[in-house]
Amino acid sequence: MDFNDPRTTMAIDDLLTRRITRRQAVQGTVAVSLSTVALGGLTVQASSAADAKTLVVASGADAVTLDPQVSFDGQSPLLWRAVYENLVKYEGETLDIVPHLAESYEISPDGLTYTFKIRKGVSFSDGEPLNAAAVKLSIERQIGVEQGIAFALANVDAIEAPDDMTVVLTLTAPSDGALSAFAGMYAPYIISSKAIREHEQDGDWAQAWLRDNMVGTGPYILDSYSQSQQAAFSRNPNYWGGWEGEHFDQLVVSYVKEPATERLLLEQGEVDVALFLPDDAVEELDGTEGIVVTDVPSFNLYYLVLPTREGPTADKTVRQALSYGFDYDTWVNDVMRGKAQQARGPIPSNFVGFNPNTPQYTYDPDKARALLAEAGYPDGGFSINYTYETGYFWKRPLGELFQANMADLGITVDIQELSPSAWADLLSNPETANHAFGLVWWPTLRTPYDFMFSLFATGAQGTAGYNWGYYSNPELDSLLEDGAAEPDEAKRMEIYAKAQDLLVDEAPALYVYEKRYRLPMRDAVKGFVFNGVYIETLNFYDISKTA
Amino acid sequence: MARYIARRLLFMLVVIFGMSIITFSLSRLVPGNPARLLAGPHARQEQVDALAERYHLTGPVLEQYGVYVSGLARGDLGLSVTTRRPVAEDLAQFLPATVELTATAFLITVLVGVPVGIFSAATRGGMFDHASRLVSIAGVSLPIFWLGLVLQVLFYKHLGILPIGGRLGTLDIAPPRVTGAYLIDSLLAGDLSLFWSSAIHLILPALTLAAGSVAVVTRMMRASVLETMGADYVRTARAKGLTEPSLLRRHVMRNAFIPTLTVLGLQVGYLLAGNFLVESVFNWPGIGLYAIDAIANLDYAAIMGVTLIVSVVYVAVNLVVDILYVLLDPRITYS
Amino acid sequence: MSASTSAVGPSTTMSGSARPAQSTNWARQVSDRLRANPVSMIGLILAVGMFGIAVAAPVIAPYDPVSLAPKNRLLPPSSTNWFGTDDGGRDIFTRVVFGARYSLLAAAVVLSLAATFGTAVGLIAGFAGGKIDEALMRLTDMFLAFPALVLAMGISAALGASLTNSMIAIAVVWWPWYARLVRGQTLRVRQEQFVDAARASGASDAHMILRHILPNCWTPIIVQVTLDVGYAILTTASLSFIGLGAQPPTPEWGAMVATGKDYILDQWWMSTFPGLAIFLAVMAFNLVGDGLQEALSPILRRR
Question: Which terminal residue of chain A, N or C, has fewer Cβ atoms less than 10 Å from its own Cβ?
Fold first, then answer.
């Protein structure tokens, strides 16, 4: 995968209007309305959430689009994954990639050719059969819409279907994590070719229609959808996985704006699972009768990104001083109530490519003051802007703690709350972007490159990515490129390890914390398996409820 | 009379026109490029430009305004950044909920405020009067949003007898849409349990919303009844031997009601404004909630749309009030 | 907002009959009646108390209202924290006490701006008459056509969320009421004989306005302002509640209720106490205003 290709840059750019705004919605966002029912009527026959065959999910964040190939937001995938599937997937809670819609796959030794054998006997919910032509069309569509994961397919040179059930991809260059582009939460989900062809309008690849409609191979079919209110699904009777064993007949996903309301709905048993609740609400639910809160490691990393283009924070020494000046322990133990741990560098500790020997800053105000003095600011005496979006439950406390800690060093932090779109607009424009801000990242691809490039590479600045601290370091850029191109795994990891060390030393961001994933649900719900890549989604097909 | 109405309607149009200028100017005051906000932070410049073209977000401001106004005439209020649907569609979806809530609150206001006001006046100086005065002042002093939260915690969390919010229960199915008001539609569909569910969900939000305006109407009614009762013609009637109740009924009521009518008209404005807060607390999917989110997202098309609709309703209601005035009091004529 | 209207109908503020100068006798009458009203006196005491609290805030409050103490997050009311702590560990009693400053300040700014600008417009309109009057009145009608909070929200959103901007927004929305009020007074006074006499003796327009008309407007303006203090506090808090006013961690009451909303189920104290403070403050001023109206009404009734 060639990340220097201008097509890549251009495609990363459309990380979409919503990636930044909703992505951090791991802890919730802002939007409309409560979980009342779709105006068009619904086929949910269940009379109460106690019905063991219906799963009722409350989500504190509104889905953005039903089209699985055009967005990087953090809320829509929950719905996508009820209906759509991919060629490969991550197994259980691991990062192992296993076949799914492909019944097997093969990568040539030179890493340039990927051969997928398509599973037989699978069809889409509109009757269209799953075959090589369908897969080819979906992949072409993903590349053609130039959104979502398209950037990761930038060096796909050719897609061929040598026979009815085989698809062969040829790349221009080998690329770390290329396969994972087909496995992740953002991937070229396989959409019915019939649907794409029939609803195509003015060369839009049927985007207008697929925004509100879904036709996939997955276990459930969309019955009805009302934006900002509710989505309802029912069983796909022809699902290739079969329906033996315990499975839900129906799924209802309701958008609930108020955390207090969502919490109560879960406590009263009116919903079975509550997604996107703020941390404090989740902690309150822990230990409540009838409710169980999962507690598993995630791949989320939470950063406090510093502006590096101008002002005192353009100086590496100052940034290091700030890194020593932040009270990580108070954050982890008091604000996060011990459910988090301090991050070590830019990569989550349980992710592939993590360098356990990367240095880690500690809270040492004296050292911070010494460094500030060294940089020419013995008593601080300057100010930093910090901005966060409305509705992001962890960003405000982060800003406040930062403000308090910096005040001890004589540095003023001005906090400003903005609407999500204004926030994104402010930061993606280099003229106005001189702000510190909080950011959470989870993996799109199975490679540490993903974290480091998207947040710190020169090619990811401004509208091209999420490097809104505008950090630019040619040494880092070349390390990342070398890593991506290195075919030998051990050597590759070595290069990435160096990149992590560099990033810690340079401190373009404070690597604040990692968090365990805590999802509250009724204890009757069984079979939930969390995978950090598929965060804030549910493995609908595998879960069930005891009556 | 007809001429008066015609003049007022014309005036209404002028006002709406003026309001559209105000809201339009406000929307262009917002810092940032609306096309960029719509397109998102990762849009390429061509995408931003295309959006700007399509939604008339570039070009001379007057031209943009012209397009906006002509769009208004056609019922096109622009595109919402939040929902990415036409604002007119969003408003059509969310308005009935607000109307239902406001109408219910208004009904409560009239049914409670008027009798209590009359009774206070009739028992002037007594315990009831003092009590109602205190309660009224308390009523207008209460922050609506706080009252809503308190009632929620009390009635849902602790007592468990009323729902926490929303228009229906989580798994209730909305009745087939005729008016959009669930109370009416469920009756039309013959679904009594749904009627009951929507009524139950309506109680807390309507009460919260009505609290302040009940207070105002009570005071107003009391004051105007007292004033009317002290009027010459009433004194004359009393001297002639008319008893209190029939006095109240025949002479006082009608005339006392007139000033109250004005206040009622104004209360609709107050209720419409209060909607924003109540819908936010109770997750009532009306235009108030829609607007609050639009504000959070700086979705100006949506904000303008809501402001315009609310103001139109307000102006229309006051026009109706003025017309009723004439019907009620033959002494009043409008030149 | 107290009910005044463009159509025929009573203004709940009774305008005084015009005299060349208000007699102190009249003022004494009013204050006597006010004092005789026990409920209003309670309101007055509360209001004065609130001023006192606002002024003495740093002395009364046991903690710092803004600095974080994460170790003490979300503690219930106790002897060390009378009103409990919020999600940043800050003492809520302290924040409520300091919040009085913001509310009173906001009310003062809003009303000064609205009353000043509104009075100016009203004077000009009433005095100049004719086309100018028409034009200005149409302008005020346009503003009055919006429910106040709705327009304030729109303006606030356009200006950007901050306490200052929300104060400006509310002032922009409220000045028309004052303009109408003062215009009505001005029209009344204009017709009095002493005004013609003054003009005949060669007084300039400015002299007329400042020396004769304006003094007669004070009373209704002051009454209206008193009535409006409570609403000013309430509206400021409402805008902050929506997120358009004071920004965290400013200890403004409305903003505090908003933050506490997410914690209402288990940490009820976060929203309850600031909300109670708003309620009591607004109630205090409304009691005073109500008493004032009652005190003024028999005197000013013309019949």
Answer: C
